[in-house]
Amino acid sequence: MRIGELAARAGTSTRTLRYYESRGLIGSRRAVNGYREYDEDDLRQVREIRALLDFGFGLEETRPFVECLRAGHDAGDACPASLEVYRRKLAELDACIDRLRDVRERLRRQLAVADSAHAAPEPRCGLAPHPGD
Amino acid sequence: MRIGELAARAGTSTRTLRYYESRGLIGSRRAVNGYREYDEDDLRQVREIRALLDFGFGLEETRPFVECLRAGHDAGDACPASLEVYRRKLAELDACIDRLRDVRERLRRQLAVADSAHAAPEPRCGLAPHPGD
DNA sequence: GCTGGCGTTGACGCCGACGTCAAGGTCTAC
DNA sequence: GTAGACCTTGACGTCGGCGTCAACGCCAGC
Questions:
Q1: How large is the ipTM?
Q2: Nucleic strand C near CB of residue B5 (< 7 Å)
Q3: Burial (CB count within 10 angstroms: exposed 0-12, middle 13-18, buried 19+), residue A17
Q4: Range of the domain at A86
């Protein structure tokens, strides 16, 4: 298949595929007219890349997975190098989540304090608050 | 004080302060020689911006807080507009955390599956596994 | 008056994963 | 033969929050 079909079947753009090739992630045979030619294996490699990017991987981090597929394995994560990346990303993810939860808690407290301060900027001076106020 | 001192006291750079000014976030009086002049209020505004950026706010999202300070309030989050941003960011944060936890779980499962497949790619063919293998 | 440390504006660089446009070649269908 | 749908390479644009450099002005101390 040619690049347009590959892009469509992988749910991405031709520009993206050429970009991956420029990074050395995927290869390409050329037809006599210079057009890039791809097969089903290429499709699987691109889908692997896309799935990992969706997981928040950087493009470089998908490289071991792609190479693992090219080496003939039926899964990109069948190789030690891929597992190493898995573990690294998992640790990063944990750290990121912890950080965000910390921020969320601080934010929540800020909001609570600011909210209450805004609800009662100063004592109400003896007037009972109106029910619908 | 001049821009160098403000930068040092706010823990940032002069370039950053000029950038904030170019975005209209902070103002500046000028001395007769054209130098920017700042006071303690400016310092507090810059510190407010920095604190919010550390929380993952975008620069634009700090604007209500800065304006709140400039309006004379003693806290950047004393105004309704700031609280609105708080709430929005809190919701974004929740969504982001949920998303990351989902990814983490998927990743964890992938790792578990791939790990076990790697540990036992095929039956051991009758040889008992070595204890330290 | 000269050095050095401050300040000024303006402009380009960076990162990552592409989008978008330009100017052309190729192939198919009519 | 020509329209138009595909392909090619190359290059610039995007987003945010600045870093970094250039080329210059101002001011204090020696």
A1: 0.79
A2: yes
A3: buried
A4: 3-116
Per-residue pLDDT of chain B (133 residues; tens, 9 = 90+): 999 999 999 999 999 999 999 999 998 899 999 999 999 999 999 999 999 999 999 999 999 999 999 999 999 999 999 999 999 999 999 999 999 999 999 999 988 887 777 665 554 444 444 444 4
Whether residue A126 lies inside any domain: the answer is: no
Q: Does residue A93 lie within any of the structural domains?
A: yes
Q: Give whole-number Cα distances, B95 to A110, B102, B126, in Å.
A: 19, 11, 50
CA distance B110 to chain A (A): 8
Residue closest to D25 C1′ by Cα: B33
Which of A70, A72, A66, A27 minimizes the C-alpha distance to A50?
Answer: A66
Strand C closer than 7 A to residue A58 Cβ: yes
CATH number where B74 lies = 1.10.1660.10
- β-bridge partners, A36: A30
Rounded CA–C1' distance between B40 and C4, in angstroms? 29
B66/C6 CA-to-C1' distance in Å: 28
Q: What residues form DSSP beta bridges with A37?
A: A29
Confidence of residue A121 (pLDDT cuts 50, 70, 90): low
